[in-house]
Specification:
- With 403 residues, the chain is of the alpha+beta class.
- It has a seven-stranded antiparallel beta sheet with strand order 2-6-7-1-5-4-3.
- Strand 4 and strand 5 form a beta hairpin.
Length: 403
């Protein structure tokens, strides 16, 4: 399994200039390649191969006065920028032909020097190295100071230097890691993700929703108002833009840290984890969009997935239309409908349910059934799954029926 390890970089002023040159050269090579292919397409010419494109915009371009400055940066940086363009085209072609699953991919677009994120990549061919003093040696940049928070588990195959919108520099190492199975445990857990509580577990625990963006809104609003008062093109506006970016970066960092810690805890404590396959993109188009994005469910589930694979755990995703909230976890009765404001309800069998805990228990039961079915076990017919058209519940149905 390949993982990324990110560390903060602290380049000197001279190294920042060298990195800026590398960012600019990589961007120019990418845009030159995209423009040449677009012009060839408009003229009805055959698709230009990767090798021919590299020869034109790198090898031959360096010999011209207009692009002679491309020789001031590592050639690997330029080749990797072109590789990114080739990958973007392959993904686009695979998408329009149906070979690529998921949403349709748009064709590559031109990169701008005003993009919030600038990045360059060094592979082993570039001969980057970590010095004895703990610095990152980059060709034609120098030895850059790194804030090491942990050791790399193996030799990195590549490193990507990233400058984010807040002006911070990071080194992202790609390393090969082996599986590290944790001791087996009998515990299993179902997770119901939500907004009132970030996660409700089938064992009754409720994880509060930190609402990092909501808590930082006052500070963000103040920084955004200060930005709106600055004249466009002025140095004060550039400083205000950086302040807004830093405020958003603090929110994103806090959310990522929370998701990492919670996902690690859950994976360590449980042999199997069951979650719903939520349609976050659809929920993000509702009036709850800000709260949905603030929760960061997708990132959290992705962390659970790769950590489960690495540590020998099982992650099961059940169908998003499974009626986990309307199903009695005691007797299996399914309510016809249930309003969202109903947080506690009583089933006809006499069981009193907390809506979210009941949903988490049903999610765990459905995940166990799927696992048994995948292993060839005898599984009773599952409970009825709501149709895709059932987007809501009828008014007045606050109690569970027997149907």
């Amino acid at each position: 399994m390949q993982l990324r390890y990110n560390f903060r970089l602290y380049p000197t002023p001279g190294q920042r200039v060298a990195l800026a040159k590398a960012f600019g050269c990589a961007r120019v090579v990418y845009n030159d390649g995209l423009r040449i292919r677009q012009e060839a397409h408009e003229q009805g010419l055959p698709y230009i191969s990767d090798g021919e494109l590299s020869k034109r915009i790198i090898t031959e371009a360096k010999k011209t006065p207009e692009r002679a400055w491309l020789g001031e940066v590592s050639a690997v940086v330029l080749q990797q920028a072109l590789a990114d363009l080739n990958t973007a085209y392959r993904n686009f072609f695979a998408s329009i032909t149906g070979k690529r699953k998921g949403p349709k991919m748009a064709p590559p677009r031109f990169r701008s020097r005003k993009d919030n994120r600038q990045a360059i990549r060094f592979t082993r061919n570039a001969r980057f190295a970590i010095t004895a003093g703990g610095r990152l040696r980059l060709p034609k940049v120098g030895d850059v100071k790194v804030k090491w928070s942990r050791e790399l588990p193996s030799q990195p195959s590549s490193v990507t230097v990233v400058k984010d919108a807040a002006g911070r520099y990071f080194a992202s190492f790609v390393v090969e890691v082996g599986d590290e199975p944790l001791p087996e445990t009998a515990a299993e857990v179902g997770i119901d993700l939500g907004l009132t509580h970030f996660a409700v577990l089938s064992d009754g625990r409720k994880i509060d929703n930190p609402r990092f963006l909501r808590r930082a809104e006052r500070r963000l609003r103040k920084a955004q108002k200060a930005l709106s008062r600055k004249a466009k093109g002025s140095n004060n506006r550039k400083k205000a833009v950086a302040r807004v970016a830093r405020a958003h970066a603090r929110v994103a960092d806090a959310r990522r840290d929370f998701a990492h810690k919670l996902s690690t805890q859950i994976i360590r404590e449980n042999q199997a984890v069951v979650v719903e396959d939520l349609c976050v993109k659809g929920l993000a188009r509702t009036r709850l969009a800000k709260s949905v994005h603030d929760a960061g469910w997708s990132a959290f589930v992705n962390m659970l997935a790769y950590k489960a694979a690495r540590y020998g755990r099982t992650l099961v995703k059940i169908d998003r239309w499974f009626p986990s909230s309307k199903l009695c976890s005691t007797c299996g009765a399914l309510a016809e409908s249930m309003l969202l404001n109903v947080r506690t309800w009583t089933c006809a069998c006499g069981a009193v349910h907390d809506r979210d805990i009941n949903a988490a228990r049903n999610i765990l039961a459905a995940g166990r059934a799927e696992r048994l079915n995948a292993c060839g076990g005898d599984v009773r017919p599952p409970f009825g799954v709501a149709d895709a058209g059932e987007a809501g519940s009828r008014r007045g149905a606050a109690r569970c029926g027997t149907g």
